[in-house]
Amino acid sequence: MKPDVLVETGVAHGGSLIFYASLFEAMGKGRVVGVDIEIRPHNRQAIEAHPMKKRIDLIEGSSTAPEVLAQVKALIKPGETVLVVLDSNHTKAHVLDELRAYGDLIGVGSYVVATDGIMAQVKGAPRTGEDWDWNNPLTAIHDFVAEDKRFIVEEPTFPFNEGVVTGRVTYWPDAFVKRIA
Ligand SMILES: C[S@@+](CC[C@H](N)C(=O)[O-])C[C@H]1O[C@@H](n2cnc3c(N)ncnc32)[C@H](O)[C@@H]1O
After folding, report:
1. Is-contact 85 16, C-beta < 8 A?
2. Containing H/E element for 36?
3. Which domains does the chain have, with CATH numbers?
4. Which of 60, 71, 131, 132 could form a disulfide linkage to 119, CB 3.0–4.6 angstroms apart?
5. Model pTM greater than 0.70?
């Protein structure tokens, strides 16, 4: 897609923000907007000191709060292509709210990528929750595309595949929510 703006909810240490910003640097265009309910001072300092900071804006607040959404929207110029990655609170309720809010930010043909839908499959492993079989991003994704027909789950095709594995091996099953109308 080579978007103009990538919005990511969930910043933590900023690893993925820096990664996306560095891809934009290689492309010679693009900006990243990172949203987190709590940007810890040492993480903010490290992100702000990084050479890729020139391509990054940080917003502190809950990703679904109206004032946060207004700040995100204000950073997007008319006509810009936007891609969204959801990697904040992975409860079903929060991801569903995020899909409803951020789905309106993207244009037809773009995606909201809801990460970490693998949770149901790893329930029972150390540090997992008893409710992970239903309380996860994947159930939110499925409910969202059922309620809003402007969106479908459609993974981008592989640019090439020289192996025998044809499906995606991923922590993010059905993550690519594409806007089709
Ligand atoms: C999985 S980490 C993000 C990791 C980051 N995307 C990376 O790969 O480098 C999740 C982050 O979501 C944040 N978070 C939790 N609830 C949130 C909310 N309601 N709105 C925004 N961020 C939230 C947490 O503070 C935490 O930093």
Report:
1. yes
2. strand 31-36
3. 5-179 (3.40.50.150)
4. 132
5. yes
Model pLDDT for residues 97-113, shown as the tens digit of each residue: 999 999 999 999 999 99
Is the backbone of residue 30 left (phi > 0), alpha (psi -120 to 50) or beta? left
pLDDT tens by residue, 141-170: 999 999 999 999 998 888 889 999 888 889
Does the beta carbon of 88 lie inside 6 Å of ligand 1? yes
Q: How far is CA 107 from the centre of its chain?
A: 15
102: CA distance to ligand 1 center in Å?
A: 16
Q: Which atom of ligand 1 is nearest to the CA of 62?
A: 20
Which ranges of 36-131 does DSSP label H, i.e. alpha helix? 41-49, 66-74, 92-102, 119-122
Give the amino acid at 120: A
33: DSSP letter = E
**Residue 133 above 90 pLDDT?**
yes
